[in-house]
Amino acid sequence: MIEVHTPDPIRYVNEDGQPVQALPGRFTPELLRELHREMLRAREFDRKLITLLRQGRTTFYAQSTGMEATQVGLARSIRPGHDWVWPYYRDHTLGLAMGVPMYELISQCLGTNSDPSRGRQMPHHFASAALKFVSISSSIASQVPPAAGSAMAQKYLGTDEITVCTFGDGATSEGDWHAGMNMAGVAQAPCLFVCENNQWAISTGVRQQTASETIHVKARAYGMPGYYVDGNDIVAVMEVMTHAAAHVRAGDGPALVECLTYRVGSHSNADADAEKHYRTRDEVSAWVGRDPIVRVERLLEHLGHPVSSEERADLIARTHREVDQDVLRAEATGQPDWKIMFEDVYADLPSHLRTQAAALRAEQDGGRA
Amino acid sequence: MTATQDRQSTDTPTPGTTGEPRTINLIQAVTEALAEELERDRRVVLFGEDVGARGGVFMATAGLQARFGKERVFDTPLSEASIVGAAVGMAARGLRPVAEIQFADYMGPGFDQIISQAAKLRYRSGGQFTCPLVIRTPSGGGVKGGHHHSQSPESYYTHTPGLKVVMPSTPYDAKGLLKAAIRGEDPVIYFEPKRLYRAAKGEVPAHDYTVRIGEAAIRREGSDLTLIGYGGVMPDVERAAEALGAEGVSAEVIDLRSLVPWDQEAVVGSVQKTGRAVLVSEAPRTGNFMGEVAYVIQERAFDSLRAPVGQVAGFDTPYPYVQDKVYLPGPNRILAACVRALNY
């Protein structure tokens, strides 16, 4: 029985990897190992992308280290490629777990010709039509009202897709968040709202975002169930998320899941010295100790199916090789031509853009119009 | 065939439809366009504050919920961010949402949704997702509405790549442009000059037609001066042209109809012919869209100009309540600008 509006986050496995309630039967050692592999792959992807950043091969990166259980757990609780996702900008682990090819993600971060978004966005703002993973926007919470509309469209069209909308804790301060939640509630739209509460919006802590004790209680104001889950416990995330998604899919209206987790790294490379300015080393250390990947390793050990160090090292090495290969492959496709700047502004190129493009062509060709 | 009709190149009869043109007003044209598009395409949905049972505060959607059902014509929470944002989500999912914002003055809370989401979804996703929506909103002054019911905010939106911006001044254009907007693949901000809702009357064909977005209408041909306007100012622009005609001055009148994209060829060609241009709009002067029109005239027709380009606009004040009529560029102010150009 998954409870709504609990004062403490729902949890199945504690930080020592010990079950605190009976594990649901589907969490076999095989599944847990699979989940572990996906989380570790995303963690190593993070690590490698930070290296790329330091090498100057990309310009921006926002790690999801520490948040893997929330994002992989969500991906595992919906139907990738079937359900629609309106994500936020720290969701590359969600994308990877849903099946976005690493090559596409890297291409987007590098802005190469192989980037499906055609180099239009800063790194980390990817889109995948094949997976119905809608383009990420930087303006905070602006995806929330469209997600409500997406779910309303789904209700109108009468198919069994649902819409998933993710955001951080900071987004819940924006008017758009309240507007979108209210709209979905009133319309009883099949939308699963997921707050990845990592407790920091750049340097603004969650206590400066809201006077509300938790975020999930706000769901009540919009007429939907709100669930509170330990976002570093992948078993709990999947159980609660699957339950909430079923509620939404059944036509019982939207739901909000708040995953309590932590952004272990900085917001981005723009504030790499987070510990110096706005949070304490002790706080970070405490959350590093609640690492979702380590928790699954401890659980598997407890269940008598430990992940061997060779297995772990092999997966890490394979991920690193994959990233390296994809980076070289993406870089080999080159940077998009300036001409693409004028495409996709409108369905067809209007005459004023044709004129501007012609002027730029003349300039690019050294004055030869 | 008049020059105006000649430029309405997409006015094509639907085979099998017959009937005489009818005279209706601008808001009836809007209602007819919405009804016909709802009838034609099940993907079209219509929503906003009060649009359902009430039929909109100006009655633009009157009777549509009764005819097409609450699933397709519905009221929303009082939230412009929700209305616009939901339209974005619906459009991305393949519907053809037509959202109503009760007054253009209230678009502020939906502004981020318009410029960050609607305008950029196609571009930023590399064409993987698109956003074919229409936002309809009554705009402009002359109805004693004060500054929250009378503003002309079109320039904010003309400044945002990815949006199309239109403003009709006749029932014919109101119907044809709205149908074109609904059938198009891009987000369109469709401003309705509210003081013309019932004041502007005109013939519309009995058959289905659209007016291509981006084409101006030449309302009157002339040789001495070109008057260029759009939306609510057009009746006064035409009155000014008539007054000039009585004095023996031949003024050409162009109704832009579309601001993004806008018909540079019609404007430049006309100014090359007449040598003088006066631009008329009711939006505040600084940053007014007509500044772009003036720039293009001097860029492309400089050698033809016999006088500086004149501009008649609203003032750089919040729209005033008591001085409603003084604020708007009426025939006298338009005529004064024409005289300055003619006597330069």
Automatic annotation (TrEMBL), chain A:
It holds the Pfam family E1_dh. Keywords: Oxidoreductase, Thiamine pyrophosphate. The keyword Secreted does not apply. Its EC number is 1.2.4.4. Its cofactor is thiamine diphosphate. InterPro entries: Alpha-ketoacid_DH_E1_comp, DH_E1, THDP-binding. It catalyses: N(6)-[(R)-lipoyl]-L-lysyl-[protein] + 3-methyl-2-oxobutanoate + H(+) = N(6)-[(R)-S(8)-2-methylpropanoyldihydrolipoyl]-L-lysyl-[protein] + CO2. Residues 38-337 form the Dehydrogenase E1 component domain. Belongs to the BCKDHA family. The branched-chain alpha-keto dehydrogenase complex catalyzes the overall conversion of alpha-keto acids to acyl-CoA and CO(2). It contains multiple copies of three enzymatic components: branched-chain alpha-keto acid decarboxylase (E1), lipoamide acyltransferase (E2) and lipoamide dehydrogenase (E3). This is 2-oxoisovalerate dehydrogenase subunit alpha. It comes from Deinococcus rufus.
TrEMBL record, chain B:
Residues 24-199 form the Transketolase-like pyrimidine-binding domain. GO terms for molecular function: oxidoreductase activity. Keywords: Oxidoreductase, Thiamine pyrophosphate. Its EC number is 1.2.4.-. Its cofactor is thiamine diphosphate. The lineage of its organism: Bacteria, Thermotogati, Deinococcota, Deinococci, Deinococcales. Residues 10-21 have a biased composition (Low complexity). This is Alpha-ketoacid dehydrogenase subunit beta. InterPro entries: THDP-binding, Transketo_C/PFOR_II, Transketolase-like_Pyr-bd, Transketolase_C. It is an enzyme of class 1 (oxidoreductase). Residues 1-21 are annotated as: Disordered. Gene3D superfamilies: 3.40.50.920, 3.40.50.970.
